[in-house]
Specification:
By secondary structure, the chain is mainly alpha-helical. It has a domain of 53 residues. Helices cover 61% and strands 0% of the residues. It is built from four helices and no strands. Helix 2 packs antiparallel against helix 3. The longest helix is centred in the middle third of the chain and has 23 residues. The chain is globular. The relative contact order is 0.11.
């Protein structure tokens, strides 16, 4: 099966998704043992969906930032994140 070269571009949470799949496989598909991975993946999706919505509302294209720009966007968010 050919690798999907656009996967990382289209899914900013690809790493978290793969880690949750790996956890399931390692733990014989016992979902209870992978809750932390699910929470991390869901937090990631929530964050990037908010970024996408904010960029769309502000007319910034592409709505999902390019892969090299994502780390700086996450870092900026961490500076302004309410405590």
């Amino acid at each position: 099966m050919p690798k999907n070269y656009d996967a990382e571009k289209n899914n900013p949470c690809l790493k978290e998704q793969e880690l949750s799949y790996k956890c399931l496989s390692k733990n014989n598909f016992d979902h209870g043992k992978c809750e932390l991975y699910y929470a991390n993946y869901n937090n990631c999706k929530e964050f990037w969906n908010k970024v996408r919505a904010d960029r769309r509302a502000n007319g910034i294209f592409p709505y999902l930032p390019d892969v090299p720009d994502r780390e700086s966007i996450k870092a900026e968010y961490m500076k302004t994140k309410p405590t």
